[in-house]
Amino acid sequence: MPATVRTESGLVSGSGSDVQSFKGIPFAAPPLGELRWQPPQKAASWSGTRVCTAFGDDPLQMQRNEGRGPRYSEDCLTLNVWTPGGDKRPVMVWIYGGGFMVGSSSYPMYDGEALARQGVVVVTINYRLGIFGFMAHPALTRESPNRSSGNYGFLDQVAALKWVRENIAGFGGDPNNVTIFGESAGAVSVAAHMISPLSKGLFHRAILQSPAVLRKLYTLGAAEKAAVAVVGSDLAALRAAPAEELLPKTAQIGGPPGLLTAPQPIRMLVDGWVFPEDERAAFLGGHFARVPMLIGGVEAEGPFFVRNMPIKTHADYLAFTQGGFGQFAEEARRLYPARDDAEAVAAVSAFFGDSLFNYGVRGLARLNAKAGQQTYRYLFTRRRGDKATPPSHVEEIPYMFGTLDAPFFGAKPTTNAKDQAMSEAMTGAWTRFAASGDPNGGGLDWPAYDTNRDNYIVFGETIGHGAGWRTREMDFFERVFAAA
């Protein structure tokens, strides 16, 4: 690698030897002042060489996690690049999760060095969160030439992908071989790029880890109404308000996710421009990008979400199933039985894991395979350090990033040689898929997805194969969502 790389905004320098990193590169102008709640604007140029050896600010958010930026702020539209050098390397662009409320590209478990050592260029991007990234408002819609508001965080992602297209060759990457990958809200974002006309041609493969998809989105009008009820109608006052004053209103607008209801309004919404049609309708109608796909989830998705929910007793469970399933309540109770308080919590956990994630994994795998695209499905069951409980939401990320040594939400879980071997297998599979659309190689036998078999590879105690993951439950949710 040269000591400096020229981008469209100016020269940047990084650090490292066999793998170089460039951190905190601006890909858009700071969304401050009048640019609050505007689509991202072009980054200003600079003279001389910009030293990019430290992460930029983490996106403003209520919950403080493991971001390595110097502070949390609205001025967060930066990205990071890890490159092994060379020319026309496959490019992997990571989109973080966090429910569109929390997250940052600077988390230690998202460090791109280990993946870059596999011969790819890794890019991790920031995007605006919460009220700053996804609030729709009638006054914002009126001032928009596209008669749209909200979706600003998604537009940040589009701007970052355009930056990659224009600049990544200087870092040794191939702009014609870009894989977008993400987990949870990041996987929701990957799916959104597959249906948005603004993302057309900006990526060539997709990896979705635990995607909460195939659900009806909020419409622009409904999202505007939800926001006005919390923040009022005075846009000038809202733009002048301190960020810290606005930040807590994110949860008031968003509210908790529903089991079968539309997702919260603080996320992507149908606005007629960024998303001309509903996510569910677009996928079921075949209106999505035809690209190779790698998709999957973890064994126990639900516990991550229900531990803080106000469902603690069997009576809570009965009320939950009646309110959440309506005409399907009795069938739901037979499929997810509970006789006491402990079983009630476990049943609700299974509900959320299936309805939010497992349903989307099977559904998208089926749709993509039926569209004639190479599709590979996985199930992650590895119990880190041979612990007693199955892995929950997020736990596969350090394996596929090769960052098992990084802190994991404030903890340093026990790791053994089997974990390291599984991590090496997964980083190899992910990067081979990015290179060619096929994760096979290095002794890995991963058959393409067959809709009739519903087959997948298992990353568990060892690497194995399975088929028909939770078929009865998935068939149930097919009927439920079809009737919703």
Q: Any overview of this molecule?
A:
The structure is a single chain. The chain is α/β, with parallel strands linked by helices and 484 residues long. 35% of the residues lie in helices and 17% in strands. The strands form three sheets. It has an eleven-stranded mixed beta sheet, with helices on both faces. It has a three-stranded mixed beta sheet with strand order 1-2-5, with no helix packed on it. Helix 5 links the parallel strand 11 (173-183) and strand 12. The radius of gyration is 22 Å and the shape is globular.
List the helices and strands and how they pair.
Blueprint: E1 4-7, E2 10-13, E3 15-16, E4 20-26, E5 49-51, E6 58-59, E7 72-73, E8 78-83, E9 89-95, H1 113-116, E10 121-125, H2 130-134, H3 138-143, H4 152-167, E11 173-183, H5 185-195, E12 205-209, H6 220-231, H7 235-240, H8 243-246, H9 249-254, H10 279-284, E13 293-298, H11 303-306, H12 314-325, H13 329-335, H14 341-370, E14 375-380, H15 397-401, H16 417-436, E15 455-459, E16 463-467, H17 471-483
Parallel strand pairs: 2-5, 6-7, 9-10, 9-11, 11-12, 12-13, 13-14, 14-15
Antiparallel strand pairs: 1-2, 3-4, 4-8, 8-10, 15-16
Helix pairs in contact: 12-13, 12-14, 14-17
